[in-house]
Fold this sequence. Notes:
Layout (H helix, E strand, L loop, with lengths): L1 H15 L4 E9 L6 E6 L8 E4 L4 E9 L3 E5 L6 E4 L5 E4 L4 E4 L2 H29 L5 H27 L5 H9 L5 H7 L13 H11 L11 E4 L4 E3 L9 E6 L6 H15 L5 E6 L4 H10 L5 E4 L7 H6 L6 E5 L5 E4 L3 H12 L2
Parallel strand pairs: 1-7, 11-12, 12-13
Antiparallel strand pairs: 1-4, 2-3, 2-5, 5-6, 7-8, 9-10, 9-13, 11-14, 14-15
Helix pairs in contact: 2-3, 3-4, 3-5, 7-10
Amino acid sequence: MKKILTLAVLLITTCTAFAEKIQFNVKGIVDKNTSKVLFYINDMNRNNPQIIPVKNGKFSITGIEERNAILYFMSSETAGVIAMNDGEDLNIDLIKDKIIFGSTANLELDNMLQNINSRAIQFDPVAEIFYKTEIAGTENSKLEREMANYYTQTSNMVVNYCLKHQNDVTPAYIIKEFYSLLNYKQFEQVLNPNSAYFSHPELDEAKGAFAMLAKRRPGINYHELNMIDANGKPAKLSQYLGNHYTLVDFWASWCGPYEQEVLYRKDAYKRYHNLGFDIVGVSLDSKENFWKDVIKSQELNWIQLSDLKGWESEAIVKYGLNIIPANVLIDPTGKIIATDLTGLDLMDKLAEIYQK
C-alpha cells in the first residue's frame, strides 16, 4: 500500500508541476521592416501561432501561462528565440536571435543554442562536401571522421547540458531538437524520471524514440525474424547466427542514405568475412522486384531477407525501427553488442573485435 501511495503522490506532483499558471512579461526588438512576431506556447511544431504586433522595431507581450511552458518567438520562418516561462521578465533581440535579459536558466539555454548553431555553421561546408562524395574509404574517411566527431561532440553537449539542468525544464526543448543524435546510454542519462523536465509534454516524441531504441539496445538478446530469402524460400534470422559476429542490417531499395552506408558494408565484408564476420540484410521493401534488383546491381553478396511488408514488417515492431538505415551487431552468444553503427564506427568496432 505504501508503494501505491508513493506512486500516487508522484503522479500528482508531476501533473501539477505544469498546472500552476504564472504571469510572463516579454519585451523585445526586431528589424524595423518587420510588422509582426509569431509567438508559440509549447508548440515547437509551429502549428498555432499568436501574433504580436510590432511598432517601430519593438514589441511586447504579457500573459498568464503554465509555469515551465516553453515560449517560442519568431520573426521569420528560420529564426527565433526559445525560453521557458519561469516568472522572470524577458528581454529578447530577434535581430540577433538571442536573449538580452532573463533568468539564469533561460540565459544558459540561449547560450547553449547559440553554441550549437555556431558549430553547425562551421560544420556545414564539411557536411556539404561529404554528402556530394559517393566514395567510401580513404578519399572520404577523413571527412566522415570529422562528421562523426562533430555529432559526438554535439551529443555530449546535449547530455552535459541536461545533467546540469535537472532542476529546470529547459532540457525539454534541447532533447526534443537533438534526441536523434543520442545513443541508448545517453538517452538513459537525459531521460531521468526525477528531473524537473521529465514530464514536460515536449518530450513525448523523444520518449517514444527511446522506447523504440530500447528494443535493440546493447545487452539484450536478438529477436527472431520469420522472413523469406532472396530465392523466395522461408528463412529465420536464427539460421544465420551462431559462432560468429553478425551485423543485422536494416535497409530498403528506396533508402538514399543506404547508398553511402553500403560502401562500408562491402568493405567490412571483404576485410572480415574470412575471419567469421557475416552480414544479414533485412529489407523493408514491399516490392520484390525492387528489392532483388538492388541486391543484384549493388552486388550485396551476403544473406538477404525480407517479408516484403514495407513499414508493416515484423522487423519494425521487434527491433523498434522508425528510421533506416539501422543495424544491430550480434555476438556469437546471440547478444546485441552495438546498435546503429555507421560508416567508420562499424569499421572501428570490427577492428576492435578482430584486432586487425
